[in-house]
Amino acid sequence: MTITMKTTTSAMAMAGTATPSNAGGSGLVSLTIRHRDNWFGVKQWWMVDVRGDNTDDEELMSQGASPLVARCMRKYGWDENFSRRVLLAYKQFLTLKNETQDWEKGELSPCCFYVDLMWHEHSSDLQNYLHDCLLLCEGNIVYRDPDAALNKANKKRKDKETRKVLKSRFGQFYDEPLWMNKIKANETQGGAQDKGALMRFSRVFCKQPAKMMCSGSNNKDHITSGAKIKHLD
Q: What is the SS3 assignment for 19?
């Protein structure tokens, strides 16, 4: 699949397969991305099923937010509740990126340490990340600058402005302790432990057992849980 879009050399470098479509410097480049059948729409993408209760379809389980949440749980030791909490904040961040068309300049900063970790994990899964951006951000790829924190003064300014915009945009759903990085260590693993919660997902998606435990308690963070997953036409 070849996609032509406006982008910058930084986004081209991230994609790795971009070539200029003309010599006039118009900013149009062609990205060659292997075709993927999307099993989710924009709303369904954010549904989480880390237990794999609703499907045994390996391809289906490799898309959407579920593998991203499960990966963060395994890698960082977060329980399921906290992972969903971060996912909600990540959703808000990408929503703002899309609404303000901040796909490449990076004016909106991942001012939450945990959101930045989740964004890092998402963008590291490059093939899915490119397709997910096209789906979630109206055909645009959101560039993540791995060196953004090197300019400390600029990062501090952007963090402050991003929190201000987030609070204004999401009101009561703005998670101030999370966005202000005021999370205690035990809050990332505070749920009831359920050894089997992640095992089934890992057998389907990762082909190996998961060692990380996750919370089995109900979540109230407005990220849909346990919804039936269906193939989209």
A: strand
